[in-house]
Amino acid sequence: MLSFVENRLSERQGMTLHAINAFFVAVTFVVTVRFNQASFGVIRTVSSTLVQCSIIKTWSYAYVNKELRKQSIKRDDKGTSQYPRNVTLKNLCEYMLCTPHVQYKLSYPDRQYPTFRECMRQLFLAFSVICGMTFLAKQFIFPELKLLKHNHFNGTEKVQRFFTVMVFLHLFWILGYFLFYRIIHPTYAILTGMPHVVFEEDWWNSPNMDEFWRLWNRLIYDALKLTVMIPLLRKGFGKRTAKTISFLIAGLLHEIVNTLPLGIYSGAGILVTLFEIPVGYVSTYVTRRFGDEVGNTLIWVYFNINHTVSFVFAYITYDLFEA
């Protein structure tokens, strides 16, 4: 079988099939869950987020092994599985199921497994944050959205309701960030014996969007940088072209996580992500002209308005969570 693949498929065809497979599996899962109404939107979103991570892992595994194959590594270091000896079912399952959402490597540091107390602490934190998010959604966000949708307010009252939604939606977003990047991903890393994996850094003090992209979501940033941006630059593409393609792929991932699970098939996730390219240029200019504090303030204002407008539009247009 391996000889057939090597003789009949080129590198480009093989990598194209890997990409199609990664996205097809994820989209099939999300659409199936949506059509069968398996659960409400939040659970669908969490599930599709985990599927998004599997896309990153699948692509990383394929790309790294492609590079190893090209380099024809023949070293025989003790304790290190070298290509092609690393291409085994055991190695694949260990990376896909028993390793945090990081880029594929031939070897990882010694694993340090958690204590029962650490596991219970993470479980309690997750339960507390989910309760807080549910409280905000049920008591503040959805009631305000219903008033905004079904009542005929004048312009001033609509603006007031909009900013009320913005405040509580911002708190909801912060709790969501804490849930995913301080609890779910780190807990997965702890359970798989790799507690020192970094998923995000000091993004909240970012002076511009470029810095924010590098620090906010290291999972996506590392994946796009190592498997999309750098390979395109090596192929001779310009930096702007490579950046646009990277954002387009990031938009597809946002579409899978943020819109498809909620029954929205408008391409809004892609458009909003691409819109951040010019926003990045503006934020860089503002930072250079007025300083880091003003640039950081601009980022927070942009995200608050962007998230609120997107959520209000989705709620009113698609009857989001009306059932």
Automatic annotation (TrEMBL):
Superkingdom assignment: Eukaryota
Record-annotated active site: H254
Listed GO MF terms: diacylglycerol O-acyltransferase activity
Principal location class: endoplasmic reticulum
Biological processes annotated in GO: triglyceride biosynthetic process
Location within or outside the cell: Endoplasmic reticulum membrane
GO cellular-component term (any): endoplasmic reticulum membrane
Pathway(s) annotated for this protein in UniProt: Lipid metabolism
EC numbers on record: 2.3.1.20
Keywords attached to this entry: Acyltransferase, Endoplasmic reticulum, Membrane, Transferase, Transmembrane, Transmembrane helix
InterPro entries according to UniProt: MBOAT_fam, Oat_ACAT_DAG_ARE
TM region(s), chain numbering: 15-35, 123-142, 162-184, 263-286, 298-318
Membership in a protein family: Belongs to the membrane-bound acyltransferase family. Sterol o-acyltransferase subfamily.
Protein name per its UniProtKB record: diacylglycerol O-acyltransferase
